[in-house]
Design brief:
Helix 9 crosses helix 10. The two termini are 32 Å apart. This protein folds into 3 domains: 74 residues, Arc Repressor Mutant, subunit A, CATH 1.10.10.10; 59 residues, no CATH class; 65 residues. The chain is built from 10 helices and 5 strands, in the order E-H-H-E-E-H-E-E-H-H-H-H-H-H-H. A hairpin with a 6-residue loop joins strand 2 and strand 3. Helix content is 54%, strand content 7%.
Length: 228
């Protein structure tokens, strides 16, 4: 995918929308650099090396093809397996409902009370609690918020809670999950990776180990953490 025709890049990131005018533009870009222009095999048309394209055109074109340009060449972007993600999320919901079914009346009442608090916080955030246009309905509450506290990093205890919930006891497994949680996505990433890793482990009749976690990461499009 290092050579492109005028038809393939017409209309991208400011290039002319017609192949003919795009071809004229490309000809000007490679003027005096014959190594960037050649006849396309089996065709009368010319093609041009992507290095001749402006950066924004090159980036948009490559992204549309599922590629990204790096210092060592072109690499293929990973594709998330939506079906697998959906099955993992469904499995997670089933596990939550299983906990609900086993809960006592007292535990259910406590959960419902906490759920109302969570819903209220979400409503406050949507209303502009953290800035922007603020609803007058919460004026008295806003007047009592003196300073926001931003939590930039998760705590080890947060990851341990995930591990306990999914019965991940191994030291290596917990260290790996803590490394994952330090990345963008943090606990949300764990909420996707752990259910899928648990599915892999259950299929083999094994406890969750680093191999299952790595497999889940790759399946969901996460880069490995080796060396981090």
């Amino acid at each position: 995918m290092e050579w492109v025709s005028a038809n393939e890049v017409a209309g991208i990131a400011g290039l002319p929308t017609t192949p003919r005018r795009t071809r004229d533009t490309l000809e000007r870009m490679v003027a005096g650099r014959t190594e960037l222009r050649r006849k396309r095999e089996g065709s009368k048309a010319f093609e041009y090396h992507i290095s001749a394209l402006p950066p924004q055109v090159r980036a948009e074109f490559l992204t549309s093809k599922g590629l990204i340009e790096t210092g060592v060449g072109l690499i293929t972007l990973p594709e998330n397996n939506k079906k697998t993600v959906a099955s993992a999320e469904s499995f997670e919901r089933q596990k939550l409902w299983q906990h609900w079914e086993k809960a006592s009346n007292e535990q259910r009442l406590r959960a419902e009370h906490r759920a109302k608090a969570v819903a209220l916080v979400a409503e406050l955030q949507d209303s502009g609690l953290t800035g922007g246009t603020r609803s007058v309905d919460f004026a008295r509450l806003f007047s009592r918020v003196a300073k926001k506290v931003v939590i930039n990093n998760i705590k080890a205890g947060d990851v341990d809670a995930f591990c306990d919930a999914w019965n991940v006891a191994g030291k290596d497994e917990r260290q790996l999950l803590k490394a994952i949680a330090k990345r963008p996505g943090a606990l949300r990433s764990l909420s996707h990776i752990l259910p899928l890793a648990h599915i892999y482990a259950s299929g083999k009749g094994e406890p969750v180990n680093t191999g299952h976690i790595h497999s889940a990461m790759l399946e969901l499009g996460h880069a490995d953490v080796n060396g981090e």
